[in-house]
Specification:
The complex is a heterodimer of chains A (81) and B (188). Chain A is 36% helix and 5% strand. Chain A has 81 residues and is mainly α. Chain A has a two-stranded antiparallel ribbon with strand order 1-2. Chain A is globular. Chain B has 188 residues and is mostly helical. In chain B, 78% of the residues lie in helices and 0% in strands. In chain B, helix 1 crosses helix 2 (32-39), helix 2 packs across helix 3 and helix 4 runs parallel beside helix 7 (113-135). The chains are: A mainly alpha (81), B mainly alpha (188). The interface between A and B is medium-sized, with 16 and 21 residues.
Amino acid sequence: MKTCIACGMPMRTIEDYPLNDESKDYCKFCANEDGSMHSYEQKLKGMSAFLVNTQGIDTEVAQEMAKKMMEKLPAWRDYSE
Amino acid sequence: MNERQKQKIETRNKIVENAFLLYAKDGFQVPTSNIAKASNVSHGTIFSHFSTKDDLLIFVIGEFGEKLTNRLHEISISSMSLKTALSTHVDIIEEYEDFYIQFIREKHNLPDMAKMEFISIQSAASHHLEAIFQKDSTIDISLPMIFNTWVGLLHYYLLNKDFFSPNSSVLKKYKNELVDTFMKMIYK
């Protein structure tokens, strides 16, 4: 079982992959409509919005936390803005 | 891998395992000398594996966060009914109950990464619960409020375990009541 390199979610079924393509190393939540992976900026925005929308975290704190969470993930480990 | 390397890994695992157990039992201020004693190694051995006390702490919390989020993802509670998903959420926290209590109690005094682990754990749960809440149009409460009310309820019982269930798992004792009450509250 692969784990998404961009958000850390385990990909257990084919439906978890973008466009059902199991050769990808990232999940459907981290993909654009054409199946390509989100950019760092897109992911940071998406992850921050998720924290605000599901847990009510303050916008600035959510961005800071999202950056820290992304630092741990293989897709963004060496990324510097 | 030669014997020496194997032994080194075993010692490291033993230190991590005992640190986890002692943090869960006594909190994160537990001296590294106690961890060394429980692991049957010299105090200095800990620092040949982890440069500082905080490095060990950060590693153990990171591993705990990863295990807990993986459990939440594995079970994929989003495909369950709300009631089963909430029960499963309680079961998963219960597996790590003592450590989880220390973690939420002392989070503010821990290195910054602990906050990130806290958010990661809540995010794995909220990701799956969100999918269930959104399928149910009869729930007329905003997503963050419903999620935080649920987690707040669990954390209240966990943080006051000494009053509610001093000698056994508070989540095991109250699981059904907590889940049933929450269901009644949101469907009223």
